[in-house]
Amino acid sequence: MILLACCPCALALNPSLDINQYAHTAWAVRDGFFKGIINATAQTPDGYLWLGTDFGLLYFDGVRSVPWRPPAGEHLPSELITSLLAARDGRFWIGTMKGLASWKDGELTHYPELARESVVTLLEDRGGTVWAGGWATPNGRLCAIQSGSPQCYGEDGSLGYGVLSLYEDSGANLWAGAATGLWRWKPGPPKLYPMPEPEIAALVAADTGALWIAVGGGIRQLINRQAEAYLLPGVGHRFRATRLLRDRNGGLWIGTADRGLLHVHQGRTDMFAKSDGLSGDFIYGLFEDREGNIWVSTVNGLDRFRDFAVPTISVKQGLSDDRIMSVLAARDGSIWIGTADGLNKWNNGQITIYRKRNGGLPGDKVESLYQDDRGRIWVSSDGGIAYFENGRFNPVSGVSGRYVHSIAGDNAGNLWISHQDQGLYHLFGGNVVERIPWVVLGRKDFAYSLSSDPVQGGLWLGFYQGGLAYFKDGQVRASYAAADGLSEGRVYGLQFDRDGTLWAATEGGLSRVKNGRVDTLTSKNGLPCDAVHSAGEDDDHSFWLYTPCGLVRIARPELDAWAADSKRMIQTTVFYNNDGVKLNAIPATSYSPLAAKSTDGKLWFVGGDGISVIDPRHLPVNKLPPPVHIEQITADRKKYETSLNLRLPALTRDLEIDYTALSLVAPEKNRFKYKLEGYDRDWQDVGNRRQAFYNSLSPRKYRFRVMASNNSGVWNETGDTLDFSVEPAYYQTTWFRASCVAAFFALLWVLYRYRLYQVKQEFNARLEERVGERTRIARELHDTLLQSFQGALLEFQAARNLFSRRPEEAIRTLDGAISSAEGAIVEGRDAIQDLRPGSTGQTDLEHLLTTTGQELASAQDSNGNRPVFRVTVEGPPQTLAPVLQDEVYRIGREVLRNAFRHAHASRIEAEIRYDDRLLRVRIRDDGKGIDKKVQEEGARAGHWGLPGVRERAKRIGARLTIWSEIGAGTEVELTVPASIAYAKSHVRRRFGLFRKKSEVS
């Protein structure tokens, strides 16, 4: 949507309108808007409206009022405010029941000279002097304040109780309405003009130069130094005037004590009282703001009056009835308005009413209207059909006037009347030529609207149930329905534009018929809603559509562009109910016409409650960009003033920024955009919302910017700004982050060095282990294999020496040598077995121990001693860490070898148990047992034996337990924690138990 801003209009109310034709809004005390009576009103340069009440001072932005609080430790002379003045130098003057104060640049100033008086009126003259009228007992005073120093007059009692009103006229005369009469205070010496009613409530100058004076009996005017009674037009009896105001267009507003508000304009007076919606009948103040709004404070509240873009003419302006049936703009400039109670002729603001009883109209309820090419006004009413010519109505026989929905005619003198029940009437020369029933035209419904074709001749009919028909020479020549592109639903109105294009206002949109082609404009193309009740074309050829959701203006270029491309989106201007448009879901009437354009270019629409009028060339446009203010910022429910370089505490979560725009014409139509630089990427369009919300802002500096537009779409793009910052928590500071980064890299370095240390230790451990293994193997070879072979050689040498002397003994010696050699081979093979570490990484622990047992059992076969060997597994097998599995296997192999070699057992068992806490390996036999000394020192001095097994267990963090009794066998148990033993860390699953056996016998 775009707003129209094409007319250079002054910011003032339309002087031709009555009060009830203005937009009126009331804020009542009983609704909690404020407390007490508003005694004074002023507007400061920043745009705020200030309200002085019985309970303090408020500032108002048109939406919300906020109490004003003086700086901490200071206070006003009294909370009861009696007068206000916004001076040109920016100082704000506050008159109270107990003295005077002023406010500027955050400083509150008191004036002790007026401390005992009630300051009821304030004025700044052309020279910048501030005048304060005080009311006190026994004597009130008038004080002139220049450069902060008051000079007061009236101590001699010349002003009586004091001064109630001040006024400076165009000749720089300062007038003071005192308890003793009217004083011309300057220039020259003060001069008193006695008044029969001395208490002068207000003063204002008339256009004639006379001075109007509000007194208890009404209005008086001072002419040639004489006070005379001034009679208001249309107001005969006395009234008590309390306030006077001349608006910018010269209208006089009079506040009264008992009759509400009087408005004198263009030679007439209208009244607006509590019965009309005013908040109260006793008027305490009148004020005109910078945008031309009139503010009225009453005993019960505050009222605002502003211009409507679409004012309404109703019974209060003289119409016979507010129930409008049709409107017709005649070629002589008059407007004919059909109502439920007579026909109204509007001509230059004067209304003539025609009824059956006094004007010759056939019936009082007027339905449809039409003006033919001869200038005659045709009227259908509940009493019949008639035409108005030469000042009188001429009835037409043969046609019932009731339920005539439309009348149309052509340049040839043919007249067509659409009657709901009787069909289509054809008249010529004022007589009925024929009547065509609707069934003859192939319809079960009736024509809702008619229009003659100015180009081709003939008649177009729009029907109640939808559809169009072109009727010519007694037959339907063409018809259009929804299947042809026509909008669905009833056809409310038909009209031709300057190009001969037919436009149909329908229930489903605005349809265009041109050269047999039908296109329909709907909400899909940019209309605010589909239904169009009526349509009118202004002098600029723009179209105006009366719809259920507002009065829509479509500029002719937009309409032409859509006609060329029916899928195009159009730009529109929409006037809503707050612009004076009466919104109705369905048309207020079923008769025509519903819209008309008068010769002065104004458009008239039937709106249901009076007649709506809009002047497209003189629309009220507010050209003042609204002042924009950021009022306060709330962080985590704590309010902060909008000061420079505002710093919010660390870890601020919920942030609310309140802002406003000071356009008081229609504050509900103000629109806002804001942007938080450092957070928002683009401007946020938030409509008329006056708060911005942010959550968990990062610590940094921010700038909040807000701009606003007024009711006419004029933007203040400069707007207002607020700089603030969110303080960081200690862990959000740069030094802390830098420290964390440094600590992280230091930790990486430590971990790297520690890893190098681990690798080094592992390498040294493996190297030491290998060196130890090879040393042990060398020792084994030296202690066993070499010595055995050396002994065998000695035996062979002894056998050789005995062969010649004792052959039998030699043979025995040779057999012993052979046996020694075989033993040496077995010992060598056992020693070599320790040099095969790679086998442990090729299979699991069960397989390794089983293979070892099988090899050892096979070796025992040669000695004729073969024990039964079995390996048992409990728990789900786990993958062991490769290095640890190698160590466990070597320990198990050594224990098995000792059992097979030395235990002389008949049964040897190896048990492996996996659970979520330990790896447990048990090897037991039923042999002869181990001597305690052997358990401690090993099998033989110099051999690996059991001490070596213990050293291996200790090196891998395992626990080794040996139990043995002589003749009762041996049991060796190795336990390793799961966190060390298993290759995977997820060992906390539920273990199921099962057994697995492998036997070698």
Overview of the structural elements:
The chain has 1001 residues and is an alpha+beta fold. Among the domains are: 1-12 and 201-307, YVTN repeat-like/Quinoprotein amine dehydrogenase (Methylamine Dehydrogenase, Chain H, 7 Propeller), CATH 2.130.10.10; 313-614, YVTN repeat-like/Quinoprotein amine dehydrogenase (Methylamine Dehydrogenase, Chain H, 7 Propeller); 628-732, Immunoglobulins (Immunoglobulin-like, Sandwich), CATH 2.60.40; 844-1001, Heat Shock Protein 90. It has a six-stranded mixed sheet with strand order 69-70-68-67-66-71. It has a five-stranded mixed sheet with strand order 59-65-64-61-62, with no helix packed on it. A hairpin with a 4-residue loop joins β38 (404-409) and β39. α3 runs antiparallel to α4, α5 (845-861) packs parallel to α6 and α6 (882-902) runs antiparallel to α8. The protein is elongated. It starts with 22 loop residues before the first strand and ends with a strand. Residues 1-10, 837-841, 939-944 and 985-1001 have low confidence and may be disordered.
What's this entry about, in short?
Helix content is 17%, strand content 39%. The protein contains nine helices and 71 strands.
Count of separate DSSP helical elements = 9
Helix content: 10-25%
Shape: elongated
Q: What fraction of residues sit in β-strands? A: 35-45%
CATH superfamily of one domain: YVTN repeat-like/Quinoprotein amine dehydrogenase
Instruction: Write down the CATH class of one domain.
Output: Mainly Beta
Uncertain segments are 1-10, 837-841, 939-944, 985-1001
Number of strands: 71
Structural class: alpha+beta
Cα separation of the termini? 100 Å
Strand order of the largest sheet: 69-70-68-67-66-71
Mean pLDDT: 88
CA-based gyration radius: 55 Å
